[in-house]
Amino acid sequence: PLKNVSQIIEILNLCAEKMIEQEAFTEPLCELIKLFGLPFQKKKSTDEANYSVEVSQSIAQLGYLMRVPSSQVKIQICKSIVSFYNLELPGKLLSGYQPTSADYKIQMAEEGRLAESLVLSLALVENQLTEKLWILKALQHLSTSGKNCRQMVEAQAARRLCLYLNGADPSGQLVFRSSDILWNLLENASKEEVVDQLGSLECVHALKDVVLDLLMRGFRHCDHQLRNDLLVIATLLAKNPAVPMIESGFAKLLVVLATFTEVKLPNPLVKGFKLTYSYEDFEMKKLLFNVIGILSKDPSAAQLLSENHVMPALLYYVKRNQNPGLPDWSATQYEELQLHAIAVLASVAPVLIDKYLSCQANTLLLMFLEWCIDQDPFFGRGNSFHGTGGRGNKLAQMLYSLQVLRSVVALYDDAVSINLCDQGAISQLLDILLYAADKFKEKEDTILLEIQADILFILSVLCENDVHRKELFSYEGIGILIPFFKMDQRKLFSGLGHSRLLLGALDCLWSCVIGCCIAEDCFIEKQGVFLLLDLLALKEKSLCNIILGILVEFSDNPKTISHMSIWRGKRDQTAANLLIQLWRQEELDLGVRRDQDGKIVDTKRPIVTSFQKQQKVIPLPASCPSFAIMEISESIRAKIYSLFCKLGFENLPGLSAKDFVTLAIIQRYIDFKVSIVQANI
Q1: Which residues contact 94 (CB under 8 A, 6 or more apart)?
Q2: DSSP string covering 293-362, please?
Q3: Long-range CB contacts (within 8 A, 24+) of 129-133
Q4: Measured between alpha carbons, how far is 669 from 665 in angstroms, rounded to an integer?
Q5: Higher model confidence: residue 490 or residue 281?
Q6: Which of 26, 177, 407, 441 could form an SS bridge with 346, CB 3.0 to 4.6 Å?
Q7: Contact status, residue 661 vs residue 599, Cβ threshold 8 Å
Q8: Distance CA 508, CA 456 (A)
Q9: What's the Cα-to-Cα distance from 602 to each of 583, 589, 595, 609, rounded to whole Å?
Q10: For residue 52, is pLDDT > 60?
């Protein structure tokens, strides 16, 4: 009965005191502790609340009794705590009583901070394996509660448990129970605090030693599962740059383990380890690839990755599977590892760019991409995260290979660009872009959209500032680029990513066409200027600035101006009228004051924005441009003025009286700007 619990604990304390002097009290003390393992019973429904303080304090006392210097007592306390989690109803009830709620004792243990006491008691049994295992068994049950886990973390449970991992234990229970508790702490308490506790050099060494032991001497199925669980914890530690993974040698072990089957070079760290191609080894391989991806984000790990042959190991997978089936990975497993390895390569390649080039990675990737679009009868399984969208095709392989190329060209390294272009990358990428665009017309899929966006970016970087490459691009590229500008405007606002494709195509146009007369003429002849003005007429804020910028660049070509003069939009709108409308909308957005006829209101500051008026005078050095100058690059007004300078300010068709008023303001834009700058000097 709940009402008797506090009396029993008083007797327990008296027995504990006597036991120090007379061992004969050990047996009755254990018998009394057993009572806490029996179901509690209540007479009234309010008893649980009324006796909650006494019961929680009594259960807390069990934790304090762990200090009693008796193995028998410690083990019995743990057994009683484990029985808290036996939620079966009692077979026999006292007359007039009913059982307490199934989780009542568990709640009282939380209130009494029993879990914290048990964690602290581990220090008392460092050299007593049996008692330690019983405490861990009790903590396993207690750590299923978030409240208990937080208390345990406060008592430095993660650090204490990690240091015990590689203790002597023939049964293997010590590692199993400790890792299970660590997992519960990570799931139910603050992950950051747990990782911080595990991040000391001592803990990382302990974790490394137990993983190595499981690798070399763990032959059971459960050993392999446990090894993988610890590798997940190692992955979490690797994400924290403050954890000494490299200093402890743990990072090197994991990298060598990830690559030794691909590079086939002997290494004493993994001498004697044999990959079995079991499901657990497959999971381990993916975890190790993941660790490499994490380490690649740490600049201090670059040398480690380079010295341990990570680049050739990852490039091993940049090929079709030559020998599917036993005794190697199955076709499904190989595909998953292949996609994972290439995805990791996208992170590693920019860090090890010299190794990347020396391993002829560009050549391998271009050959692999050629296989991706050929007629080889290959059907992707699409079972993994990286295989999404790749079922029945090679699109996943194509996507991740392109992401590797994207990551290295984004370095703007001349050696990478020259190496790619010398192998005909521009022509090959255009073929893939055409292939992906045709497939996208059949079925609009996210993976195809990503592929097209990546190719457009790669081409933009390769052709930028190189007239010869722009000329190479123009032969096939402009014909492929034009359909992007004919995209149904309803799709642009559908939220499916079509706007990203259009922006990529505009960027590609700017980098791959402008600056090369042959390419520019080809684009204009294919009615490219008309298409740009059609897009501009949508008046989409995110597109206007870039399209106007492209038109300004194109305006040096005489054919551009004649095409702009000929263009007609909806309701016979002219290019001049469209530009004037955009100017008025921009001034409205910027808060520039005009009257109902479009005339100037503030004659002293005719084109100053509301933001500029609110801005206080800030002294700047002579080398620093003022806001009036900086605003030119962000506002579309300067671009519209530049286009009118080419179109002319007279004899423009399709303008109203209000348009002519706005046109007069545009014509004097530079004069107004000069006056603002002089006023600020």
Answers
A1: 1, 41
A2: HHHTT-GGGHHHHHHTTHHHHHHTTSS--SS-STTS--HHHHHHHHHHHHHHHHHHTTTTHHHHHHTTHH
A3: 129/167, 129/168, 129/169, 129/174, 130/71, 130/75, 131/71, 131/74, 131/75, 132/164, 132/167, 132/174, 133/169, 133/171, 133/173, 133/174, 133/177
A4: 6
A5: 281
A6: 407
A7: yes
A8: 6
A9: 17, 17, 10, 11
A10: yes
d(CA 533, CA 567): 8
What DSSP state is assigned to residue 100? P
663 assigned to some structural domain: yes
- What does the pLDDT average to over 98-102? 83
By residue range, what is the domain housing residue 43?
1-112
The number of folded domains in the chain is: 2
> Domain boundary at 112, 129, 163, which?
112
Domain assignment present for 101: yes
Write down the pLDDT at residue 299.
92
Omega within 30 of 0 (cis) for the link into 28? no
Q: Which of 22-26, 303-307, 519-523 has the lowest mean pLDDT?
A: 22-26
Asked if residue 156 belongs to a domain, the reply is no
Q: Using an 8 Å Cβ cutoff, are 295 and 349 in contact?
A: no
Total-model pTM: 0.86
Q: Where is 498: in which H helix or E strand?
A: helix 498-512
What pLDDT is attached to residue 586?
87
In a domain, 223, yes or no: no
Instruction: Tell whether the model's pLDDT for residue 215 goes beyond 70.
Output: yes
The Cα 47–Cα 42 span in angstroms is 6
| Percentage of residues of the chain with pLDDT beyond 90 | 58
C-alpha of 207 from chain center: 25
For tokens 């660009």, the residue is 417
The answer to whether 40 and 105 have CB atoms below 8 angstroms apart is yes
Q: Which amino acid is at 69?
A: P
Q: Which long-range contacts (CB under 8 A, 24 or more apart) does 172-176 make?
A: 172/222, 172/223, 172/226, 173/133, 173/136, 174/129, 174/132, 174/133, 174/136, 175/210, 175/214, 175/226, 176/222, 176/226
Residues in contact with 321: Cβ distance below 8 Å, sequence separation at least 6, in sequence order: 331, 334, 335, 338
Q: Domain end: 68, 93, 112, which one?
A: 112
Residues, the chain: 681
List Cβ<8 Å contacts ≥24 apart for 441-444.
444/496
Tokens of 82: 């484990």
Judged against a pLDDT cut of 90, whether residue 28 lies above it is answered with: no
Higher-pLDDT residue of 464 and 631 is 464
Q: How many CB atoms lie within 10 A of CB 264?
A: 10
In this prediction, residue 455 has a pLDDT band, given cuts at 50, 70 and 90, of: very high
In this predicted structure, the answer to whether residue 589 has a pLDDT above a threshold of 80 is: yes
Look up residue 9 and give its two tokens: 């604990």
| DSSP line for 587-625 | HHHHT--B-TTS-BS-SSSTT--HHHHHSPP----TTSP
Q: What percentage of the chain exceeds 70 in pLDDT?
A: 91
Q: Choose among 459, 448, 395: nearest CA to 421.
A: 459
For every residue of 500-527, DSSP letters joined together read: HHHHHHHHHHHHHTTT-HHHHHHHHHTT
The residue type of 403 is Q
| Predicted confidence (pLDDT) per residue in 2-20, tens digit | 888 888 888 888 888 888 7
Q: Return all residues near 440 (Cβ < 8 A) that are at least 6 apart.
A: 448, 449, 452
